[in-house]
What does this fold into?
Amino acid sequence: AAAAAAARRVVSSLGTEASYVTLGQAGAQQSFLAECPEEKAFQLVPHWAESGLGGSDLPGGADVEECEAIGGYLGDAFVVLADAPEETLAIAGEQGAALVPVFAGTPPPQVLPVRAPWFATQEQWKLLLDQGASPDKVAAACASVLTTFGAHHKAVAEPENCDELWYADPDADRWAQLAETGAQPPPDVSKGNLRLQGSFSGKATTHSHQMDVNVGVDFEMPSKVAAKTMKQLSDS
It folds into this structure.
């Protein structure tokens, strides 16, 4: 259930920009691959074997063990499912790939770090490693951190096609609400004060740096000034 739910959310977020490769094994890998676009789904199998699954077979090593080793070099990001081979994960980690666990109901392997990597918040990482978390919540967290990692990777590989900053912001909804407020027509007021109070936090990531962002707001201003400020926001 967790593998299929994660695949649906990941495909919804990344779509056809990504290719999806497994080792062609039944179980969690098969469940994940079944939710991926047929033309973007691949199985790495020994050159003499056929997976019998959807998508296309990629003939690899002489046996399953060689395929597991080769698999560690094939991706920039790995969704770590319940049956993921330790050797594949170890090689992928050495290559600097993102390892994103999907382990609702099963214990994660020791190769995964306890603390969150740069492309995930600590809350997201704790959820991804939680054996008792619901598959839907794990799937949503998986898609979110992969989207963040993908944005960073694209900024490095294709900087001319990217904005200067990419954000992994757990308060995105509140930022959106603030933007909507600023876009409204200014109120017709002539007296009184407006109090602004709130806080926002998140991570700002460029293709070379990452920083924590914390913004707090708590002040009053005359309503006339507030109206003028909101008008400037709506015109910008």
About this structure: Residues 135-157 form the longest helix (23 residues). The beta strands are 20-22, 41-45, 56-59, 77-80, 98-101, 166-168, 193-205, 210-222. Helices lie at 2-14, 28-33, 64-71, 86-94, 122-128, 135-157, 172-183, 223-235. Residues 164-169 have pLDDT under 50 and may be disordered.
